[in-house]
């Protein structure tokens, strides 16, 4: 496939062929209906009996079945042609869009795909600074469009060849063959809806051929990449496509945001803030922040794999709202130990770089714990920014709405880890920080999560009064709170809980953190004895964001829990 072939392709001819098959299928269907009514039904209603009648009746039934199978096979040809027209048109539109953008950027695209541009600043065709980066981006889009067309051509050709072979060999007259083709056709066209049980999704995925899986990944990367129950490798492949598309789209929006409006405009009593500037600034900040997050993910995905930098897998991605992303360090489908890290207030696509670094450190800590024990087991740590987190402490993080809205998403993801894992059962840890612990606590309490260990770091409360209310073995619930972490001041609004805090505080000289029973904004403090969690040691001076500091006691303990070395 080359640029000229795809650019000049007359997609309408495929549609004409599809319409012709529609007409043929409709006419054939009418003949089948007429034959059934005029021949089969009349013969069945006759009074003809005897051996000859039985033979004729049986043959008539067989013939009816063959005609119905042929009718269905004709419809599959029509669907294949319709799909071909759709996919070729989509690939063609992607190519044309890339070429148009190249022209607007004063880039010259040769028939073989090479891109050149004028570097002379005084020339009217000067492509400007950054031309090379734009050329690379356009080249990638052209290549992607051509690959899209090649893949469509290969799959459509295989489908039509299969149906043609059925017709020429007579196997297409077999009801079982038609049923198999119908099942394959249904599977091709129906991606399970978001929220479908991950085990059902995995069963659907396993029932597809490799070509069908590739087709869904290529044609619907946003759906496949974010669907719980799809294996990690396939999700990663799909989301990398979506990531690059988002990168181009975000940069395009930034480039076309328009000039900055004035900050102030004239009002009745002097200059006032300009709403147009405020909106422009909001859009610019969000776009730039999301682009920064995309670049951070892209950089980590592209990092050369070595002992210090394990491979990464992009298990979820979109730019809706503040953006979401799920990034795994090592493949969770093959790892012996898996940890899902849920960050808290402020978590979003734009800030995910720091969270991925925490996952890297947890994998290194777990690997260290394994080495000390002489255990060769592997570990995957996943950064799960798969929910809409509160973006401010006050008032956002004071509400549990964000946690409630995240429950089903987190449950679906954890069930997906179990559904797609290969080999022996793995040790599964859910680990969260700050408001992320509230998300985890609510999900455990209301939905249940298939996890072995729960780690609550710097929690403002998890919606329950005792570790046993989380639905896991309380001995596998761990909590940490640093001596310099102000989270213990996140006191409840409810009068009875606040009064309980005051009562417990009386007579305690060295601070609320040591009270035997202390309530926070979202429930009892997980580090007080009455909650019943096991304590994780923290280094002196540990503040709210210091738990992942290199060589800290807390990071070492996290690694031991994730690796299954904390008995």
Question: Can you characterise this structure?
Answer:
- The chain is α/β, with parallel strands linked by helices and 567 residues long.
- It has 2 domains: 3-46 and 54-119 and 126-190, Ferritin; 305-562, Alpha/Beta hydrolase fold, catalytic domain (Rossmann fold).
- The chain has 15 helices and 14 strands.
- It has helices spanning 3-8, 11-45, 51-104, 131-169, 175-189, 198-206, 210-219, 221-225, 232-255, 275-302, 352-372, 401-420, 435-446, 495-505, 553-562; strands at residues 107-109, 115-117, 264-267, 270-273, 312-318, 324-329, 337-342, 379-385, 427-433, 453-457, 477-480, 519-520, 523-524, 534-535.
- The strands form 4 sheets. An 8-stranded mixed sheet has the order 5-6-8-7-9-10-11-14, with helices on both faces.
- Helix 13 (435-446) links the parallel strand 9 and strand 10 (453-457).
- Helix 3 (51-104) runs parallel beside helix 5 and helix 11 (352-372) packs across helix 15 (553-562).
- The two termini are 59 Å apart.
- The model is unreliable at 505-514 (pLDDT under 50).
What's the N-to-C terminus distance? 59 Å
Q: Spans of 5+ residues with little confidence (pLDDT < 50)?
A: 505-514
| Portion in helices | 40-55%
- The fraction of residues assigned to DSSP E strands is 5-15%
- Could you please say which CATH topology of the largest domain applies here? Rossmann fold
Q: Mean pLDDT, rounded to whole units? A: 89
CA-based shape:
globular
- How many helices? The count is 15
Structural class: alpha/beta
- CATH 2nd-level architecture of the largest domain: 3-Layer(aba) Sandwich
Instruction: Tell me the strand order in the biggest sheet.
Output: 5-6-8-7-9-10-11-14
Name of the level-1 CATH class of the largest domain: Alpha Beta
């Amino acid at each position: 496939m080359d640029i000229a072939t795809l650019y000049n392709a007359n997609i309408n001819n495929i549609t004409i062929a599809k319409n012709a098959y529609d007409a043929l299928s409709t006419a054939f269907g009418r003949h089948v209906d007429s034959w059934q009514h005029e021949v089969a039904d009349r013969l069945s209603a006759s009074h003809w009996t005897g051996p000859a009648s039985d033979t004729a009746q049986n043959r008539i039934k067989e013939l009816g079945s063959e005609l119905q199978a042929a009718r269905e096979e004709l419809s599959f040809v029509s669907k294949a042609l319709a799909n071909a027209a759709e996919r070729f048109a989509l690939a063609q539109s992607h190519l044309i869009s890339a070429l148009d953008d190249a022209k607007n950027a004063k880039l010259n695209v040769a028939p073989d795909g090479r891109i050149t541009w004028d570097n002379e600043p005084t020339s009217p065709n000067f492509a400007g600074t950054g031309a090379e980066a734009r050329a690379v981006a356009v080249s990638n889009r052209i290549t992607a469009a051509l690959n899209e067309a090649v893949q469509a051509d290969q799959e459509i050709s295989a489908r039509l060849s299969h149906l043609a072979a059925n017709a020429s060999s007579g196997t297409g007259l077999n009801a079982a063959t038609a049923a198999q083709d119908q099942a394959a056709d249904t599977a091709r066209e129906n991606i399970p809806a978001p929220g479908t049980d991950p085990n059902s999704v995995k069963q659907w995925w396993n029932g597809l051929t490799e070509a069908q899986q590739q087709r869904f990944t290529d044609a619907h990367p946003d759906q496949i990449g974010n669907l719980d129950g799809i294996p990690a490798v396939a999700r990663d492949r799909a989301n990398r496509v979506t990531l690059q598309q988002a990168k181009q789209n975000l940069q395009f929006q930034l480039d076309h945001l328009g000039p900055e409006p004035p900050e102030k405009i004239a009002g009745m009593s002097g200059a006032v803030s300009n709403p147009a500037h405020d909106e422009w600034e909001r859009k610019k900040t969000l776009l730039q922040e999301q682009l920064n997050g995309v670049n951070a993910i892209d950089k980590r995905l592209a990092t050369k794999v070595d002992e210090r930098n394990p491979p990464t897998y992009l298990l979820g991605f979109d730019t809706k709202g503040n953006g979401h992303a799920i990034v795994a360090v090592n493949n969770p489908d093959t790892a012996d130990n898996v940890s899902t890290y849920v960050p808290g207030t402020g978590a979003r696509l734009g800030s995910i770089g720091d969270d991925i670094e925490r996952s890297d450190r947890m994998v290194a800590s777990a690997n260290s714990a394994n080495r000390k024990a002489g255990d060769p087991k592997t570990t995957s740590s996943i950064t799960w920014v798969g929910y809409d987190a509160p973006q401010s402490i006050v008032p956002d993080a004071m509400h549990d709405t964000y946690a409630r809205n995240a429950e089903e998403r987190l449950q679906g993801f954890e069930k997906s880890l179990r559904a797609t894992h290969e080999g022996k059962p793995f040790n599964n840890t859910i680990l969260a920080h700050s408001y992320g612990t509230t998300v985890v606590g609510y999900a455990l309490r209301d939905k249940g999560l298939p996890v072995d260990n729960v780690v609550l770091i710097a929690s403002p409360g998890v919606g329950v009064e005792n570790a046993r209310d989380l639905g896991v073995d309380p001995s596998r619930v761990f909590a940490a709170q640093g001596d310099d972490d102000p989270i213990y001041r996140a006191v409840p609004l409810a009068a009875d809980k606040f009064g309980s805090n005051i009562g417990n505080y009386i007579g305690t000289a060295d601070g609320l953190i040591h009270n035997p029973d202390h309530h926070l904004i979202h429930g009892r403090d997980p580090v007080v004895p009455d909650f019943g969690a096991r304590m994780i040691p923290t280094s002196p001076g540990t503040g709210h964001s210091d738990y992942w500091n290199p060589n800290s006691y807390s990071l070492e303990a996290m690694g031991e829990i994730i690796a299954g070395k904390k008995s």
